[in-house]
Amino acid sequence: MNIKDLDREEYILSGNSSCPGCPASIGFRLIGKAVGKNAIIVIPASCMTIIHGVYPHTAITLPTLNIAFATSAAAASGVSAALEIKGKNYPVIVYAGDGGTADIGLQALSGSAERNENIIYICYDNEAYQNTGIQRSSTTPYGAWTTTTLKGKQEKKKDVPKIMASHNIPYVATASIAYPIDFIEKVKKALKIKGFKYIHLHAPCPTGWRFPSEKTIEVGRLAVGTGAWILYEIENGVLKLTGPSKNLIEEGARKPVQEYLKVQGRFQHITDEMVKVISCEIEERWNGIKMVINLQKVNGT
Amino acid sequence: MNIKDLDREEYILSGNSSCPGCPASIGFRLIGKAVGKNAIIVIPASCMTIIHGVYPHTAITLPTLNIAFATSAAAASGVSAALEIKGKNYPVIVYAGDGGTADIGLQALSGSAERNENIIYICYDNEAYQNTGIQRSSTTPYGAWTTTTLKGKQEKKKDVPKIMASHNIPYVATASIAYPIDFIEKVKKALKIKGFKYIHLHAPCPTGWRFPSEKTIEVGRLAVGTGAWILYEIENGVLKLTGPSKNLIEEGARKPVQEYLKVQGRFQHITDEMVKVISCEIEERWNGIKMVINLQKVNGT
Amino acid sequence: MIYEIRFHGRGGQGTVTAAELLVKAAVAEGKWGQSFPFFGAERRGAPVVAFARISEEKHFLHSQITEPNIIVVLDKKIMEAVDVTDGLKEDGVLVINSSGLFSKESLRNFRICVVDATKIAVSLGLSVAGWVIVNTAMLGAIVKAVPLVKVESIMNAIRNNWPERVGEINAEAARRAYEEATVL
Amino acid sequence: MIYEIRFHGRGGQGTVTAAELLVKAAVAEGKWGQSFPFFGAERRGAPVVAFARISEEKHFLHSQITEPNIIVVLDKKIMEAVDVTDGLKEDGVLVINSSGLFSKESLRNFRICVVDATKIAVSLGLSVAGWVIVNTAMLGAIVKAVPLVKVESIMNAIRNNWPERVGEINAEAARRAYEEATVL
Amino acid sequence: MIQVLTGNHSAAYAALLSNVEVVSAYPITPQTQIVEKIAEFVETGKLKARYVRVESEHSAMAVCIGASSAGARTFTATSSQGLLYMSEMVYWASAARLPIVMPVVCRTLAPPWNIWNEHTDMLLVRDYGWIQFFAESNQEVLDTIVQAYKIAEDERILLPVMVGLDAFTLSHTSEPVDVPEMDLVKKFLPPRANVPYVLDPSNPFTLGNLAYPSHHMKLKFMQHTAMENARKVVLEVDDEWYKIFGRCYSLLDNFMCDDAKVIILTIGSSAGDAKEAAKYLRKRGIAAGVLRVRLINPFPAKEVSDILSKVEAVAVVDRNLSPGNGGIILEKVKSSLYSLKNRPFIKGYLAGLGGKDITVEDYIKIFEKTLESYRKGDSDMEWFSINLEATSL
Amino acid sequence: MIQVLTGNHSAAYAALLSNVEVVSAYPITPQTQIVEKIAEFVETGKLKARYVRVESEHSAMAVCIGASSAGARTFTATSSQGLLYMSEMVYWASAARLPIVMPVVCRTLAPPWNIWNEHTDMLLVRDYGWIQFFAESNQEVLDTIVQAYKIAEDERILLPVMVGLDAFTLSHTSEPVDVPEMDLVKKFLPPRANVPYVLDPSNPFTLGNLAYPSHHMKLKFMQHTAMENARKVVLEVDDEWYKIFGRCYSLLDNFMCDDAKVIILTIGSSAGDAKEAAKYLRKRGIAAGVLRVRLINPFPAKEVSDILSKVEAVAVVDRNLSPGNGGIILEKVKSSLYSLKNRPFIKGYLAGLGGKDITVEDYIKIFEKTLESYRKGDSDMEWFSINLEATSL
Amino acid sequence: MKKVAAISFPSKGVAGKTGIWRVRKPILDRNKCVRCLICWIYCPEGTILRKEDDSVEIDYEYCKGCGVCSNECPTKAITMEEE
Amino acid sequence: MKKVAAISFPSKGVAGKTGIWRVRKPILDRNKCVRCLICWIYCPEGTILRKEDDSVEIDYEYCKGCGVCSNECPTKAITMEEE
Ligand SMILES: Cc1ncc(C[n+]2csc(CCOP(=O)(O)OP(=O)(O)O)c2C)c(N)n1
Ligand SMILES: Cc1ncc(C[n+]2csc(CCOP(=O)(O)OP(=O)(O)O)c2C)c(N)n1
Ligand code: SF4
Ligand code: SF4
Ligand code: SF4
Ligand code: SF4
Fold it and tell me: pLDDT digits over A89-111, tens only?
């Protein structure tokens, strides 16, 4: 797929309330380009709630249900159930933040996944509760400043895609707003699979991560390039690296994580020791991936 | 460890309200023998709520907090936080059913795990909501009859230990009431580790699974012997098979799953096809385990 | 008049079903009826209580039954643990599953109807997982002791509740108990 | 008398802080004060509004401010999008950050105080990430236009809000603006 | 056809008769049999519906909201803890104006755990914008649930409806219920029209995004007005039901109130026992009556006021508690009658909490006590049938 | 020391001054600054507490319940959706008799989303057995939270306490607050005693297992009695506070009511604007007064009744809605006054929903309208300051 | 400690003398018993009483007759008999 | 469809003319532009207008001036200038 092939239509209109350089907007634009107009969107409380504007107007051109913070996967299950019983065949797509996914929405998410509801759940991960002003979420990475972790978060980032993969759903993928084609291809693949699809979209947020608004994509690219964020998909249990991550299995291929950290104000205060912890964490995560990939090779999948 | 070494004291007194042959009681008795009297217990809505009796009496001799269905891990976090701030050093132990763990309690559980709260969470898995009369839970296995899945559950059993392992907590283990020493050793190990410990205890329930009350242990043994339930522990990320499961890596070593299924009324209706699905599921789960173990060997852990 | 009945059985014996079948029989005869369990955790083997109210006319009652007219004991063993006559009206009737003519000092004041429901059930092969199922037989005995409804209505209610042979055998149990029950 | 002030700025300019500092200065002088933002999502660059009330005596008001006595415009660009004079009292004052003597047809009716806060801020090196920080300078201009509090109180409030050099420079910005502001 | 059904099965049959399309519920004693029965209907193909077996009540209501927003007729049921656990979504359903129907099997809230009857759970959500009925019998449970869909989906209403039934005394009590013919019900209740909106790409819009104060207040006004309409629409629907099925219920169940001197006002199945008490007192020459409130929300303030204005003494029996304040229905009744010229004497009783039984004898005592207090002018609320000293703790 | 603080920071300082030991909260606009500030206190070592950063409000309250059961002084804070999401545990905390304190920053409930001020959230949980205060100023927020611990932990009470403050109009409004000295506060509020119980292996017992009806009802009675005690204990504690800090609040804030002919009764910060309106009317010769209810639960029925019995007309201004019924405070006031011989004329107003501002001019109109309606005898509730036709939807 | 909430204290027989629940009764043959304590560790009720010398006895007052002990006894020392 | 709830319809400029938010303004140098559409795909606002011929234009009415387009343009065809 090539940029030029992409849909010219916009599904989130300009002049909306996102911050300049907002990754959530980018993510949503890309979803639109992958899905087109025949889909139903479900959005829990999050930056998206604000972004699409104030009643009686909306920036989103797809039918959209705003719903309570904890419930997006459940509400989407309901929409999907209704469509099924009515014989309608539109994809139902959740677009939720990391808080609404990994924290307060996790239970509904896990339940829907276990029931293998026919929905696509996309989490845009800006690594904190940005809408309420940058509080720690469980996907905030170790060491990051937020307004509730002034000295940096003490715990590691919750690995939601891994948790979702442990649910044995047909499709799990990670993506980054810095790699639009990779992301769009994943959404398009998800559209073709019946059952529960989970895509975790890395979404560097200038406001919350404290970097200049023009660097949104750059920071996203650095996350992938340093291996701090890994692009992969798991289709029916088989893991595949995608995009640039394919070539980063060996540590040497990856940029030093400092390059990623230093552009972000939220990591300004961190010590060398903390950087070491972060590097180790990255190393470990890659080891896990490597393990799985090698084994798959052995097993011929 | 040997049976004879075990604590003679009882921490759940006889004449309580459990069904004859109840695995939840067995599990709790064993915890008592592992922990002794210096611990605080947290129990959400479940069979245990009923088992320990009606106010103003209780069958449990340890200090115990009954708490709402969805909250055991959170309430235990609270108890643990209070103990810490007061400088007290007792283990806090959750004893929850599978519904209170894998379904309505999952979010609080996941949150506590991510914060790495210093508690031991033990889920006794009787594979349905038994207390309300045998409704499907997410850990009900594929094919099993419950009052809400009359033709057998269509989805697979949610793999909670795997999900918890994906949380990168210091200790995750599975256990079975049929293997008391194995279970007690795991609880004792958990007592020595700081942070979040999760133990998933397989608990065949005569009332819900429809087998005669004397077969509780036998059914538990069959689950392990057929490989339908696997005993292992994951300490700091390293997986180890334990007890009889150590010798069941190869399919040939395992009994045919039918032996496990046929003693249970809840599987009475299942077809050969469904048996095949179940066998495959078991096979797959073992393959996963095998993969990890082999890799650990390669990596020398 | 409203007849109030209390059933004593043990978890797994179909005590609640017995109460419900009695009501179904009554309703089929155009009467009014109501049955309900005492709800706690019903454990296999543990004492269980259920209730029924039968009357000619519809009434509005929904409160508990504390002073029944009839008490039915499906399992004599219960009487070791529970005072089954508690609250029984002075002119009340006790219907007891017992082999041999049952009489106990403390029950002197009440009319007693005895039936060997266990024997009947066993002879009809009515047992499940070690339990002899006596609930349907007891229904026959009840209507022998007090003609709340016709035994045929009981039998029909039973037949409507279980398919084919199971229904038939249970109906037969009720019939036999109706015949064999002895009112002391 | 209760002075009601509305601040117009853009997200990232410290508009809300300006309102709060004005109140702190007033309170330090033993006056009563109150400040609050209009709360929506505050986006970088987007128009932002904040309010302050200053009075000699304590009062009980908590309602919004719709007819302010003073309007402060931190960024002239806002005026392209927002009618900043909306609700301004007839004898009200407009304090505008502008280079050159600012006058616009529609503002004719009001007293206008102009200060080149941007120039002052720039000259003092008050800028963060592409933004010139004019909020403290504007405070000096306000008290020039209307002597709500002494400029020294403003300067102290600023110093208490930021440590050391940052506080000093900002206080200096207020002082200079106080001097340079022109009431038309 | 007359069947002997529990209250729970009556509710399940009502869902079947209403041809609900999406059901989502979570088990809780004593509601469980409702969902079990519906699971059976769905699995045996009797009911063409998706049954979504959620992991919690919060999700159950969220599924209903999602499904209802996409046009399906939806059903759920819960009780006590479950009702509070979903309460955020309970409020949501009404403000989103979705015609969801939910029986609530009223049970005492924990702690301590208690599974028996109390009305506090349902009354705690009385201000959430749901139309609330409370049934006296299993027949009424069934009839009311089917009526509820017709009411909820009425263009003048578009609000969710809750139907309360007592734990065990109805939910687990078997009694004769006339189950209507499906064909007749279909005539009474056609499939849900596309109201109030249906999420569909053919007409894209966004539901529920941020609204500024004036708009929000206007929406609240409309919701309030729709709720007020309920008092009328409920009667119309009840009338229609009566014409087809020969049974009707109105807003209030007026049992010998018209010439009564003393009235017990209460809700739920226990009102029947109060009626028996009234019959007994009438025989002894005391003009007793019972006013059972069936539509508990919106509270039929005027209708209650009209009836009570004619009596001397009223006993309000509350099976619920607002700690520190007293009975919730009592508060509603008193405030409803505030502007009456001639107000009756009102005395409140807290009774039956935690599932304590209230017997006919108890009601007789309440009638008598009320008359006596009326004579003495002692209107203090009383805790009834609880021996506060004897019950050791 | 006089500081200029927002309502949120006042709440955070109160937690600091109270030396809370376990804090657990989840962010929500407009409460967020409370928890952010407390996080800062904890991370900088100013406050020796464990701050448990939970994944939801339901868990926040569960953590508080666990910690409080194990003897710690606990604190949380929430708003709107968060309050409903935790509501099962809100009820639990009171029935478990735990002295937890929670400020609630009152915000309009969704849908549609709305972050502005409305009191419905807090009033929806009024019957959950919490003592509820509602503050008019940031000073009162701070003072009341510290007082709240003293009240909650009193042996005669042992109940949790909620302190309401208005979204934005207090939470985000900076105003002068006299922050008391820590040493003085320590004298006023000693560390929590081992009440009502402490989970500990030295004395093993089980909390909250199933209880039969009689026991349950007795427990409810005790909870009710403790709530009733609050009316007295609140005054005692307030007195003690006054002796040390020179400020006091009582149950009601009586603003020129004693000789008033017409009174506005309301709650929250907006009462101040009503006071300004009353001052204005007094100047024009109209004997206006404002009665602000500070202790909203248990409702001070008698105290309100005593004051209102002496006036001619009362306007109750509700910034909340029970759809189909009207204002919740109105209902409480009317029912409180039911047995008065001479009842004042009462008219209810629904105002300020969804965060709509209520101005001094509005209150002046309300006073005037009320007097006019009184003359006409028109007591129908009114929707105020909403142009129902003009606001298009 | 103020008793204001539901605080329960440990006690045997919270469900009564549960021996009455039995349909079948475990009978121990002391001669066959090898004191392995398997019945003791598995008994859900704690009604296999372990003596000082690791011999066992059955507490019939509370034994519910589930049969687990009998089923698990490796020497078949416990048999279930109809009550 | 009855409008009883908050139903909103798609519209541009829900937050007004967001062009006013800009501090810096992206200026496109047509000569350097190679029509790779990278700016178009990354622009968070959709304010890089893609023409039929895949040339681009900037919609200043709504462009918030974030600078992403400029930062990502491989040929440096877009530069940010102070407003
Ligand atoms: C039950 C509940 N609790 C809290 C909130 C407040 N809230 C709204 S959005 C939000 C943060 C969302 O964070 P995330 O999901 O990460 O999305 P983001 O804002 O970062 O886009 C919070 C805490 C709420 N709306 N509902
Ligand atoms: C919020 C809430 N929903 C539902 C219930 C009802 N409930 C109590 S126990 C239970 C089932 C428990 O199942 P599980 O956790 O598997 O434990 P088990 O009963 O099998 O031991 C349910 C549904 C409840 N107490 N609270
Ligand atoms: S805070 Fe971050 S994610 Fe939220 S609108 Fe702003 S840039 Fe986008
Ligand atoms: S249902 Fe199963 S787990 Fe529950 S008490 Fe009975 S045997 Fe034990
Ligand atoms: S029969 Fe069951 S309860 Fe009785 S002693 Fe044996 S194992 Fe224990
Ligand atoms: S500056 Fe930002 S908003 Fe403007 S066109 Fe470039 S990418 Fe789009």
Answer: 999 999 999 999 999 999 999 99
Which ligand 1 atom is nearest residue A124's CA? 21
How distant is the Cα of B14 from the closest Cα of chain F, in angstroms?
16
Burial B246-265 (b: 16+ CB within 10 A, else e): eebbeeeebeebeebbebbe
pLDDT at residue F384 is higher than 70: yes
- Ligand at minimal distance from the CA of B99 is 2
Q: What is the ipTM of this complex?
A: 0.98
Cβ–Cβ contacts within 10 Å for residue B191, how many? 15
Give the residue extent of every domain in chain F: 2-245, 252-385
> CA F69 to CA B65: how far, in whole Å?
8
Separation CA D34–CA F7 (nearest Å): 11
Q: Are F88 and B151 in contact (CB under 8 A)?
A: no
Cα distance between residue B42 and residue B33, in whole Å: 17
Domain count, chain B: 1
Parse chain G into domains and list their residue ranges: 33-82
Q: What CATH number has the domain bearing residue A124?
A: 3.40.50.970
- Domain D2-183 sits in which CATH superfamily? Pyruvate-ferredoxin oxidoreductase, PFOR, domain III (3.40.920.10)
Q: What is the A131 CA–ligand 3 centroid distance (Å)?
A: 7
pTM (two decimals): 0.98
HSE-up (13 A, CA, CB side) for residue A23: 33
Domains F2-245 and F252-385 share a fold: yes
Please list the ranges in chain D whose pLDDT falls under 70: 102-106
Spatial distance between the Cα atoms of E297 and E127, rounded to a whole number of angstroms? 8
Domain E2-245 in CATH 2.30.30.110: no
Residue B209: φ, ψ to 5°: -95, -5
Question: Using a 6 Å cutoff on CB, does residue G38 contact ligand 5?
Answer: no
* β-pair type (C32-37, C47-55): antiparallel
> Is the distance from the beta carbon of residue G63 to the nearest atom of ligand 5 less than 6 Å?
yes
Could you tell me the residue range of the domain that residue A244 belongs to? 3-299
The number of CA neighbours under 13 Å toward the Cβ of E72 is 31
Which residue in the set H12, H61, H66 is minimally distant from A21, CB to CB?
H66
Q: Quote the longest CA-to-CA distance of chain B.
A: 58
Place of tokens 């996944």: A113
Q: ∠ at Cα H11 (H7, H12), nearest 5°?
A: 150
Report the neighbours of F using a cutoff of 3 or more CB pairs below 8 angstroms: A, B, D, E, G, H
With a 6 Å cutoff on the Cβ, whether A207 touches ligand 3 is yes
Optimal mutation site among E97, E159, E195, E229, interface H, most CBs of chain H within 10 A: E97
| Separation between Cα atoms, residue E94 and residue E223, nearest integer Å | 8
Contact H20 D47 (CB under 8 A): yes
Q: Give the integer Cα–Cα distance in Å for H69 and H78.
A: 7
Token code pair at residue F73: 């002084």
Q: Is CATH 3.30.565.10 the right assignment for the domain spanning H33-82? A: no
Helix D135-145, helix D164-180: angle, nearest 10: 40
Burial of E368 (0-12, 13-18, 19+ CB in 10 A): middle
Would you place residue C130 in the very low, low, confident or very high pLDDT band (cuts 50, 70, 90)? confident
**Residue closest by Cα to atom 8 of ligand 1:** A45
CATH number of F252-385, picked from 3.40.50.920, 3.20.190.10, 3.40.50.80, 3.10.20.310: 3.40.50.920
Instruction: Give C68's DSSP letter.
Output: -
Measured distance CA(B33)–CA(B12) in Å, rounded:
10
- Span E22-52, pLDDT tens digits: 999 999 999 999 999 999 999 999 999 999 9
